[in-house]
Amino acid sequence: MNTELLTYSIFIHPKDLKALKQNVWRKRPVNAKLTTQNQSFKVDVLYRGEHIRNMQKKSYQLIFQKSFYGAKEIHLNAEYKDLSLIRNKLSLDFFQDIGVLSPGSSYVLLYLNGTFQGIYLQLESLDEHLLKKRGLPSGSIHYAVNDDANFSLLTPELTVKEALDSGYSRKFGTTQDDDRLKELIYSINLASEREFPEIIEGILDVEKYLKWLVGVICTQNFDGFIQNYALYKNYETELFEISPWDYDGTWGKDLNGGDTAFDYISIDGYNTLTARLLQFEKYRKCYKEQMEEVLSTKFTPTYLEPVVQDLFTLLEPHRDKDPFIHASKLDFEEEAHQIITFIQDRNHFLTHQLKDF
After folding, report:
1. Helices in 163-280 by DSSP H: which ranges?
2. 262 and 224 in one domain?
3. Neighbouring residues of 251: CB distance < 8 A, sequence distance ≥ 6
4. pLDDT at position 47
5. Is residue 183 part of a domain?
6. Which terms are listed as keywords in the entry (predicted)?
7. Is residue 148 part of a domain?
8. In terms of DSSP bridges, do strands 105-112 and 6-12 run parallel, antiparallel, or are they unpaired?
9. What whole-number distance in Å separates Cα of residue 8 and Cα of residue 6?
10. Do 141 and 218 share a domain, yes or no?
């Protein structure tokens, strides 16, 4: 197995780098240059993420002035709270494998102003350029940027939202697409039981949403139901589709790297949209059939253990050089064991719950 990783060298003027470090929440990017494979690119740089901004190892958002291998924007994730470094990639690849639109990812070695920063996970930005690269129809894209994106009229604190599209940020599209998103939230909450199936099927690709739900339930991303996703409105079908984002707190860990029990989230999941859909027999049947197929084919130790081991093998030669990783080979072997054990235990748990679903 080839364990070579691409090297990215970013240079930021020391004055600009100092300004970036002094205000980790800065919204105005600084100018920089990225060099890789003997090519240089002008790029704007910002920190990204929420809790990660105050950590030693930062994550970065890179916006290119010209095309970067077909992309205009990429994200370099530190994966600082996930000792394994693989949970995010394992999740996004798993979603892609079960048929859910998901950003591509790959590992790189990052230098900043000549100083090695360690192993990073490069993520595609879910935007109009990704759609073009995948040969998908153009469409609007909204990111769920906080937990107000819970498909409800109320915040998680049970206060009335300021707007129907609270919790979302439009990445691409028009104000008309914002109105369509508001229509989705309105219909989820206020359509009558008799009208709901016809209305929701005219706004949402329900089958794809249920497939995404299978992925969230299997990987057990607690935040994934109310944020950590993007909505893509396909301009050809005029239906919303859903895509995962930021899945490091998965496979038996939370976003802070703490352990979560394999039965922490039930097969029903949660959020208002999921609850409404699963009230209807035809949607429950569709979800059950999709879950049964994934539990018997893709979400099994037999299928996923080689994937996990390949990722650990890929990163093994580079871990000791990462200045922010302080762990032994035995620690990483234990991480791999925990992930495989989680898959086995959660598969058994969900299979048992399906019997009474």
Report:
1. 175-190, 196-201, 206-219, 272-277
2. yes
3. 87, 90, 91, 219, 220, 338, 339, 342, 343
4. 95
5. yes
6. Capsid protein, Virion
7. yes
8. parallel
9. 7
10. yes
Give residue 191's domain range: 136-297
Distances (CA, A) of 192 to 3, 189, 196: 55, 9, 6
Q: What is the DSSP string of 101-161?
A: ----EEEEEEEETTEEEEEEEEEE--SHHHHHHHTPPPEEEEEE-STT-SSSSB-TTS-B-
Q: Assess whether 67 and 204 both reside in one domain.
A: no
Q: Where are the alpha helices (DSSP H) in 278-328?
A: 281-297, 301-319
* Alpha carbon of residue 158 to chain centroid: 26
Q: Which residues are within 8 A (CB) of 333 and not within 5 positions of it... i.e. 6 or more apart? A: none
Give the Cα separation of 256 and 254 in Å (integer). Answer: 5
Give the integer Cα–Cα distance in Å for 320 and 297: 35
Domain count, the chain: 2
Q: Closest Cα partner for 299 from 331, 333, 343?
A: 343
Domain boundary among 297, 322, 350: 297
Could you tell me which residues come within 8 angstroms of residue 330 by beta carbon, excluding any fewer than 6 positions away? none
* Residue 57 identity (one-letter amino acid): K
pLDDT of the residue at 242: 98
pLDDT, one tens digit per residue, over 101-130 is: 999 999 999 999 999 999 999 999 999 999
If we measure between CA atoms, which residue out of 340, 306, 332 comes closest to residue 85? Answer: 332
DSSP 259: B
pLDDT < 70 stretches in the chain? 52
Q: Is 269 helix (H, G, I), strand (E, B) or coil?
A: coil
CA atoms of 215 and 222, how far apart (whole Å) = 12
